[in-house]
């Protein structure tokens, strides 16, 4: 056993933590109405790991000895639990497969290198011995970027980067911090915070995802409006490749031909193992506020988000949920927290008197950071836009609550799965002019898929990550599966949603990578010559296809 | 003759326009002091084009007929002036070669396609007939990106994109405009301005550079702090490649693997011919102000620029000249404009009384855009930083003057060259912590080069394009050449400066591309594996090396 912690083998997060609804009185009726599920159904028990049949490791003793010589005793592991934990990420497809013991191919060995020199030796070993390497950060991926190809005959090693978690250096004057790539979100922010800095990157997976993983999948955090996506945050890189170690020095902007930095971003291990990154960091803001607003309907909310993006205001978060996600949000409140139910009831009565349809209300969060006067000024600018669109302010309460529970949603998925419902997310980005039609097309596509399956299904959405020319729409969907072939049912729904993205002018993913899950839509998204250019990069750096083959371009 | 206008064959800009010093009394003494040149020396006459010996076109009659069938009669030109105009860009190396009639290899034909379909036919023709294609926008490049390889035996065609200049569409709600790639700066802004929009991209070459050229070289404009570099502005692309036409749809941010969009940016024609781009555009700002400030010295000025970048302020321009460039700026003022000399004299007396060394003063311009209240707020935030560093405001006068003459500097280079002095620019970017040592190293490297040459030389600098983690330093250098081998002398100076960039933690260029001029430093900048990745892209898209071979990676 190493000291690198992992999530539950069968689900999200740490052992002993899960979603509970007993203190959330509105939850059970909400779920019954949404997908026809009775949450008081006793949960299916999760199997004991000892009942899982795991294919034997194909690693020879000689190879094990050679790898142990590189990483040290106890850091080249072949036991079943280690190998299963490193087989999948945490998509609903992954969870369904784990619960069904569908493990046709698992890594043959899990390696825990201690430093870049060891990673270099591992890559050399893999090339010389024609083995396959799959880098592993926090294991939170939901796009199939981590899984071994089922037909792969060669030895497969998962490289767990968990021991590479040091803050190497802060260049305080430049606002640049250099970290080893395996550092997880909370550890990274703690090391920075101790010295008064923040990177400001908070994806939903934050608690269980790593810097290297964010870079390898083009992650985006909730505060990207201010701090940028990981592509903007990442300035320098070190990447171990078969031909040597790639070094991109931290330069604010460069004119050095096709961007190699931007080729590593989103490369999912196919262009090498990211060992180190130099990232932009900011002084912890003097003030930080997340304010809640209520819009009369989704249409006016979307226009308001657009108008904020074209105004002089520069908030750190712009986020608004559609009426369904707003309903979900209200249903997961504890009876005694948040906007207390009395105040809420009072406000709702007022809004109803104004002619609002309470089922159409959309909850928005806008974040502000900086000096007190800057925050005040930003709030005032956003306030003008908000009021113009008839919205009302509900203050800091909902924002504080959102901040507290923002990383908890994945636990809910396991709760639902325990009771027979499959849930996952799909997100996209598109120009402002295309967002509303895209939204409607996706809703219709999901409903069509549910009808095809003859099941009750749900889809809800929020807008986040506003940019000048567009934004991200993030959909969460759920349905009660048939218990026979839930993966096939999931494929029908997921496929309908992804196709609607592309057909409506959106991309296959704004910040969840391609992996194997989204690979079928890559050519439709970036055109065949675009796929050819990416294939050219892979062929140049990894002619032996030793680096995470089958990801991004699955047709090879 | 087509209706596509070109610059002078021997120098910058349009016929009949040049730099004059007679109305700038301080200019002659300044130049005498800086490089020991007497500007009253009568200028060397520029040769009549008829005296230039131009190698014959290698294009066969059959090929000429085939190409004329593609682009139409009068648009496949083989006359000498056309071919010489398309041989080089406008670096000092280019100007020296043109004036010395050094034309060892010129394009064999200049093609003016009318649309993307014709470009596709040209690319197919080139691949089938193993010819070389070099795309040409405004011809302002100073990195050798346009020149035919001297040893190239195959037919070389320059593709002048000047006829592709239409605004195809504005998506007003998304702030996205789609243009044909050959459109020049003024034409682009005029088409946008007529509908109330601006792209806000104003590089020094603006009047004679094209959208496609900006994209192919990773250009940056003066107002990049607000509008972004061209890499951020460009959202969608169409690129004709040998394997088909690459289409990148306009998406605000995507997670589709290694970025193909960012591979085309800076590709200098090696990954195809850019025919169309969708770019971010903004409503013309309600108010725009450029305010001048004076700093006591360069050191305090750099700290102030850093502090503005870490403050809540978001100006559209941050720019400060070192003492030498400030002196140059004052020396090129007309006697009767700008800060009137009386006011200047009065201010200088005050500053001298405060203990300032007038030879160390640094002139800064900060730009503000937005609503009147936003501009006022930004000015006030910047003002606090400025004052903290002891600087004084000199108001709108110098800024207005800067706005007027910002595109005139290249004409001065021809004026100096007429009189025996060679001048050019080199620029870089680095983290904030490295800028001052880099600046000192570059000054020392240039002075070392001048000493080695035994000539009087000059180098001056400004900071521009502030980013969170660093900025661009832009150097202009000049020396009186020996009249024997000025190119060899230039190489000594240029090489010393570029090497100092890399050794001091800077990049080979922030926004002038690699071309052939900066290619010797590419490996030191992005490491050998980085060069290998770029080579892999070229090999994948252009296995026949038909697309602008020898650029970016010259060692092939």
UniProtKB/TrEMBL annotation, chains A, B:
Q: Name one GO molecular function term.
A: oxidoreductase activity
Which residues does UniProt mark as catalytic?
474
Q: Which InterPro entries match?
A: Alkyl-DHAP_Synthase, FAD-bd_oxidored_4_C, FAD-bd_PCMH, FAD-bd_PCMH-like_sf, FAD-bd_PCMH_sub1, FAD-bd_PCMH_sub2, FAD-linked_Oxase-like_C, Oxid_FAD_bind_N
At which positions is FAD bound?
Answer: 217-220, 268-274
Which key words are in the record? FAD, Flavoprotein, Oxidoreductase
Which Gene3D superfamilies does the record cross-reference, listed alphabetically?
A: 3.30.300.330, 3.30.465.10, 3.30.70.3450, Uridine Diphospho-n-acetylenolpyruvylglucosamine Reductase, domain 2 (3.30.43.10)
What are its cofactors? Answer: FAD
* Transmembrane parts of this sequence: none
Which chain positions carry the site (Important for enzyme activity)? 319
Where does the source fall among the domains of life? Bacteria
Q: Which GO biological process categories is it annotated with?
A: lipid biosynthetic process
UniProt cross-references to Pfam families, sorted A to Z: FAD-oxidase_C, FAD_binding_4
Q: Where does substrate bind?
A: 413
Specify the FAD-binding PCMH-type domain's residue ranges: 103-284
Give the family this protein belongs to, as stated in its UniProt record: Belongs to the FAD-binding oxidoreductase/transferase type 4 family.
- The identity of this protein, by name, is Alkyldihydroxyacetonephosphate synthase
């Amino acid at each position: 056993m190493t000291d690198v912690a992992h999530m539950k083998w069968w689900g999200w997060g740490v052992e002993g933590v899960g979603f509970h609804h007993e203190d959330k009185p509105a939850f059970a009726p909400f779920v019954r109405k949404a997908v026809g599920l009775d949450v008081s159904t006793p949960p299916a028990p999760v199997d004991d790991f000892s009942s899982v049949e795991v294919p034997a490791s194909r690693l020879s003793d000689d190879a094990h000895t050679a790898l142990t010589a590189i990483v040290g005793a106890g850091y080249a592991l072949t036991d079943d639990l280690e190998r299963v934990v490193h087989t999948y990420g945490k998509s609903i497809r992954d969870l369904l497969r784990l619960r069904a013991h569908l493990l046709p191919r698992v890594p043959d060995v899990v390696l825990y290198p201690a430093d870049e020199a060891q990673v270099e030796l591992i890559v050399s070993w893999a090339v010389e011995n024609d083995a396959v390497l799959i880098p592993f950060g926090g294991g939170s991926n939901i796009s199939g970027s981590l899984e071994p190809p089922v037909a792969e005959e060669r030895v497969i090693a998962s490289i767990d980067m968990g021991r590479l978690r040091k803050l190497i250096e802060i260049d305080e004057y430049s606002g640049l911090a250099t970290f080893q790539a395996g550092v997880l979100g909370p550890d990274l922010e703690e090391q920075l915070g101790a010295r008064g800095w923040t990177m400001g990157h908070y994806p939903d997976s934050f608690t269980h995802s790593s810097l290297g993983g964010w870079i390898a999948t083009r992650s985006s955090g909730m505060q990207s409006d201010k701090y940028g996506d990981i592509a903007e945050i990442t300035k320098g890189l070190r990447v171990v490749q078969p031909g040597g170690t790639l070094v991109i020095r931290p330069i604010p902007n460069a004119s050095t031909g096709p961007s190699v930095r931007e080729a590593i971003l989103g490369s999912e291990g196919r262009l090498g193992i990211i060992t180190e990154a130099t990232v932009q960091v900011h002084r912890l803001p003097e003030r930080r506020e997340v304010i809640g607003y209520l819009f009369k309907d989704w249409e006016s909310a979307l226009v308001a988000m657009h108008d904020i993006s074209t105004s002089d205001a520069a908030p750190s978060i712009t986020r608004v949920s559609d009426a369904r996600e707003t309903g979900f949000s209200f249903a997961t409140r504890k009876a005694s927290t948040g906007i207390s139910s009395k105040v809420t009831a009072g406000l709702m009565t007022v809004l109803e008197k104004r002619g609002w349809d309470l089922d159409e209300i959309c909850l928005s969060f806008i974040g502000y950071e900086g000096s007190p006067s800057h925050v005040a000024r930003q709030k005032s600018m956003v306030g003008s836009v908000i009021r113009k669109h008839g919205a009302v302010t509900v203050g800091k309460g909902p924002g504080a609550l959102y901040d507290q529970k923002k990383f908890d949603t994945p636990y809910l998925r396991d709760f639902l799965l325990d009771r027979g419902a499959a849930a996952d997310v799909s997100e996209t980005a598109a120009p402002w002019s295309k967002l509303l039609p895209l939204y409607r097309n996706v809703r219709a596509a999901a409903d069509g898929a549910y009808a095809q399956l003859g099941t009750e299904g749900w889809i809800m959405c929020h807008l986040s990550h506003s940019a000048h020319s567009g934004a991200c729409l993030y959909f969460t969907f759920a349905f009660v599966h048939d218990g026979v072939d839930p993966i096939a049912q999931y494929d029908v729904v997921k496929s309908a949603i992804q196709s609607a993205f592309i057909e409506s002018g959106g991309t296959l993913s704004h910040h969840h990578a391609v992996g194997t899950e989204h690979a079928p839509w890559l050519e439709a998204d970036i055109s065949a010559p675009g796929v050819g250019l990416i294939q050219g990069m892979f062929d140049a750096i990894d002619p032996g296809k030793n680096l995470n083959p089958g990801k991004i371009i699955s047709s090879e």
